[in-house]
Structures are given as structure tokens and as C-alpha cells.
Amino acid sequence: MSQQRDLLIELGTEELPPKALPALSAALTEELVRQLDDAGLGHGAVESFAAPRRLAVLVRDLDARQPDRQVERLGPAVQAAFDQDGNPTKAAEGFAASVGLTVDQLDRQQTDKGERLFARLEESGRAVTELVPDFVTQAVNKLPIPKRMRWGRRKVQFVRPAHWLVALFGSEVIEFELLDQKAGRASYGHRFHAPDAIELAEAGDYATRLEQDGKVIADFARRRELIRQQAEKAGRDAGGEARIDDDLLNEVTALVEWPVALAGRFDEDFLRVPQEALISAMEEHQKYFSVLDADGKLTPTFITISNIESRDPKQVIAGNEKVIRPRLADAAFFYDNDCRKPLEQHAQGLAQVVFQQRLGTLADKCERIGALAGVIAGHIGGDEQLARRAGALCKADLNSEMVYEFDTMQGIMGYYLARNEGLPEELAEALHEQYLPRFAGDSLPHTKTGQAVSLADKIDTLVGIFGIGQTPSGTKDPYALRRATLGILRIIIEGGLDLDLRDLLAQAAAQLEGRIDAGQVDEAFEFVKGRYRAMYQEQGIATPVILSVLAIDEACRRPLDFDRRVKAVAAFQQREEAAALAAANKRVSNILAKLEEAPPEEIDGALLEDEAEQTLTDLVVNAYERSEPLLEAGDYEAVLALLAELREPVDAFFDTVMVMAEDPAVRGNRLALLSFLRDLFLNVADISLLQE
Q: Are the beta carbons of 226 and 274 closer than 8 angstroms?
């Protein structure tokens, strides 16, 4: 008999929750494999299978039994194991009995807690067929199921009723019971195409037998790719391109065992409705893929993935067309109703909608957003009046019927309502752009008005929530302040906006006077600094580089300036002079930190005694003059390149000059030189922090 065989575990159930299926499959596989590995069982490749009515794991070439191994066990302290006459105590006898030895067969071992009795045992490996029942039971019990349920008179609990259990080691059935199911070799195919039992002769035949005899493609990834290909082909055949959303693709894959793509159509009159609403209705409610033309416009075609291979596909298509029609009709009804009222009228209802109890209503928030957006627009070359109006109307569509029905339409509906009303195009764009970026890597506002409104909205929320003391902690961030702050930084930096963020935080706080603790603005600013660190670490920038710029408060106030400094220091760190200059700066910082009083504000040339200090003084003065125009232009890389020239003179200074000279005047003069040198580098960053 072979020492290695394939192990198959399959749990058959009622249809599993589609959005949870991938996570359930991954958890089952990971936990089962972990236990096999911990048991010292060697194996080959591991395959996961997940379909609506099954979770399965196939482990190739699994060892038939564990290897024998030595086990070492410590017993009681020798002092407690024997009495004054040297006779074994109950502690010694009990330990010996627990390991199957006599007291005189035990060894002694010195430990950090003194000498103890010790046993070295030979443990025989157990067979896989003995171990697997417990392994599978534990793996199933650990599945990430938020709420387990019981059905009928069953006492067992699971996410869905279990109907069969397969446990094969090669051709051998591993006998055990789980969720009221006895393990066997019988699996089941497609509910309609192949409902009868499929007797599996070998574990390794699983996927092939299910597909050939059961009309089930059990491999989730393979089924997913097949659906993608079928949908794309159906889209091309319809003269367009299927819109494949990854989340929808995963959900559809979890809903079907034998996918068949079918294309249907809907009335072209529905295309007057915002396409985002139609797409939302098709994707969220019906799990259909929409079809777009070459310009990205919605066509009157949809693609449904059927779970059966019908002899009359036209009947299936007709049924789906009948189902989608009322969904789209609802969207059209809501849209038409909303278009009958101007945005100003929609906005009136916001006075009855609370944003946050202490921060007021959404109407209050829109008033604040409008005022701050106008200020920001003035700083970035935008239209202040347009930004104020866009801010005042930015949440109006939340009071529309369309957004009430399709929450993904917030902002988007505002855009369409503004255009329908004939408002300026940039204002309409801003109503949509206010929510950008919605996630990491998302697009940013491209209009000045959109940038102003988006920043004002996020800054108002950040200051307001910090002002009432509801700061993010751990994984809790109910107002998504981390994401909002990263959005603020991205808009400013990638938009090339020269804004003082600390000042904008203060202006937002002033608008909230009486509602918040204004002292929390400093805490909000510290939170922003933490987001700088997270953002640049994500980009692969070394932490010491980020910290060196974070040490410069003025840089933290202006994100665009911060970005330039970080990139300049990151480039500087690669130079061979960087390490030596960082060490020198750290040495200078340590010297100056120990002073009880500040060094003189001027360097007295008459007190320069050593050639090295004279040379360094001349170069520092020259570097100040040369760096001024570069600093004004924000060319920090050029400034640091200039300062890199000071490496050798700085080294020579510390090699030959005694800074803490006995003469107080000379000592003070040299300390003044070091202070000037440090300030020169602090114009960019605290280079001393580059020395890890």
C-alpha cells in the first residue's frame, strides 16, 4: 500500500451565503492544512474548491501516518520529588505514571528553575485516518460564521443545513460524523442537471467527476474566469463591452455551479435615466452585467449568468427581461420626480437631517462647507462665489428619492440634477467630485471648485469630530477620518495646491465655535502628521526620511511643501555623504541640546582660531546665500546637494577643533557656528534623524 495518498474533504450544504463563500473556503483550507503541518504530515499541493452547495479541500500526496518522534517532558523539581530519606514522593510517582515509566527510569535535567525530573519518550506516529476527523471538525468549527443557526429538530448549528460529507484518503473512506452527516464517498452534482449521488472511487478524481458527471465546476477561480470570458464574449456579440465589476463577478461566481451567459435587452427609453442608477439596479438587485459602448455609455443590453443550460434559452432571457423592467421603471420614476424640483428645494429638507448631534444638521454643515470652500477656492485660483454655492448645495441630493433608493448615487445624482437645472458645468462636476477620493487609488477632483468643496467637506468633518472628542482609536474610525485625511493630503499634493492645512483647520474650527473644543485642533493636526507617515510608508519611503521632515513644523503645515521635502531627503539619503552628514548633525544636535543658554546669534570672525573652523564658517555663510533662492523656489533637492559639499569641511572641523574650548568667547563662537550649521540643514529637514 502506498505511503502517500490524496486526501479529499467535501462538505455539502444548502446554498451558502455568496459574499461569504470565498472567505469560508480559504478559512477551511488554511485551518486544515495548518493542523496537518503541525502534526508533521508531509504533503504536496493543496487545492480549494468552493461552489454554492459545497466546500472542499484536496490535499495531494499526504503521508499516511506521522513519523515517530521523541518527546521530552519536564517533571517536578528534584527537591519536591524525593523526601529526606531519598524516597520518591507522590509528585514523582504521579509524573512517572503519567509518562508510562517508573521513577528509577526518569532522568534529571538542570533548568533555570533548578534541577527537575525529566523523561524522554518515543512517541509513535498516528495514522492520518485517526487524525483527520478531529482536524476537520476543528476546522469547520473555526469557520468565520457570524451567526450559526439550527434547522428543524437538528441540534447542530451551522451557517446552512448540511446534506452530505465526503472524506476519502485515496480510495479509503475515513469514517466519522460531522453536522449530523456520516462521512462517505458519495458527492452530489448540479441540483437540476445531475441531482443523483456520484460515488467517488478516488479522492483525486473529485474535480473531474463533478464536472463530467455532475455538471459542477467546483474550482472557484476556474469558474470565475469562465464567467468573465462568457460575459465578455456576450458583450462583444451585443456590439459593446461587458462592464465587469470584480465584486459582482465574485458574487455571481458564488451563485452558480454551471455558468451560462445570456444576453437580454431593455427598453431604450430607460437610457434617459442616469446610467449609474440603471447599472446599480442591474448589478445590485439582479446581479446582471451591463454592456457599454466604445464611449463608455450604457447600451440597452444586459448579461445574466444562468445556472442551467436551458434547452430554450429564449425563455430564460424573456424571464429576466420581464424581471428587470419594473426595476428600471422604478429608477425612471424616482429620477423624473427628483427633476421636478430644483436643488435649492431639495436642500431645504437638510435642516431636518442631523449630521451629528453636537455638530448640527446637514444644512449647518453645508453652510460651513460653502464658506470654507470659498476661502480655499480663493487660494487656489478658483471661483470663490461658485465654490460657495457648490458647497451650499453639495448635500442637497441626499434628500432626493433616487439617493434614498440607490445610496451609491449620492453626489452623482446631484451632478445630474444640477445639469438638468442648467447650473454651471463646474458646479455640477463639483457635486460629484466632493466625495473623491472614495478609496485608496481612486481618482481625484479635477476642477478647482470640486477640489475646494471636497477639501472643505473633509476638513470640516475632521475638525468637528476631533472637536467633540470622538477621535479614531484602534480599528474604530466610524467617520472614516483616516481615509478622509489621506484624501485631503492627496488632493493638495497631487493637485499641486499650495495650501496651509494648519490654517484651514483653524478656520474650520472658528466656524464651529461654541460647538467644539477649539483646543482639539492641535490634536487634529497631530493626526494629520500621522497620516503623512502612513502615506509615505505605503509609497516605500524609509521611516527615518519621513521623521526627518515631520520634525519641521512649517513643512507639516503645507502638504505640497512636505512632499517636496520628503522626496528631496529620500534622494539625498542615497548619496554617500548622507550618512556622515547625518552623524555630524546628530552630534551637533546633542551638543546644542546640552546648553543651558542659547549660543551667540552672530559669528565673530576675529575669534576664529583654527583653519578648519575658518573654512567651515566661510562655506556655511556661502551656503546660506546660495540656498536662499533655492528655498524660495522649493527646490530642496538642490539645497541638499549644495549642503552635501560640506561633508569634508564638517569632518575636518570635528577632527581638529575642540568645540568646548576653555575660553568662553571662543567656545561661544564655535557653538554659534554649529547653530548656524544646524539651522542650515533644518531649512529642509532634521537630517540628524537619518542616522538610525
A: no
